[in-house]
Amino acid sequence: MTNEQTHKVHLSPEDQERLRELRTQKPARNLPKLALTPGAMLADRVAETVGSWCFIIIQSVLLGIWIMLNMIAFIRHWDPFPFILLNLVLSFQAAYAAPIIMMSQNRQSEI
Predict the structure, then answer these.
(1) For the chain, what is the total number of helices (H) and then of strands (E)?
(2) Which stretches of the chain are assigned E, i.e. beta strand?
(3) What is the C-alpha separation between 74 and 83, in angstroms, rounded?
(4) Which residues of 84-106 are buried (b: 16+ CB within 10 A; e: fewer)?
(5) pLDDT tens digits, residue range 16-38?
(6) Prior bond of 82 cis (ω within 30°)
(7) Distances from the Cα of 110 to the Cαs of 1, 34, 38, 83, 106, in angstroms?
(8) Do 41 and 101 contact (CB within 8 A), yes or no?
(9) Tens digits of per-residue pLDDT, 59-76?
C-alpha cells in the first residue's frame, strides 16, 4: 500500500452526499452528444486516417517507389535527385494536414 491509500479522508455529511450523487450520475460516462458540423466530422476523419499506422506504411511505400523509379529510370526522370517535386508534394500535404489535425485536436480538448 502506498501512503495515499493509507490516509483516510474525513468528509462532511454534505460532501459525502454530493459524492454519492456524483457516483450515481457517472458524469464522465454521460457526456452529451455534440452535433458535429461537416467540417468537424471531416477533421476527425482526416486526423484518424493520417494518424494511423496504415497511412504511415502506405505513404512510406509510395515514397520509396517514387524515389526508386526516379533513381533507376532509363529514359526520363520526372523528378531527378534531389526530388524537388516530391518535396513540393509532401509540403502541400503537410500544409493542409496539420491545420485539419489541429482543428480535430482543439475540438477534442474542448470536450
Answers:
(1) 5, 0
(2) none
(3) 16
(4) eeeeeeeeeeeeeeeebbebbee
(5) 898 888 888 776 666 667 788 89
(6) yes
(7) 36, 11, 18, 40, 6
(8) no
(9) 999 999 999 999 888 778
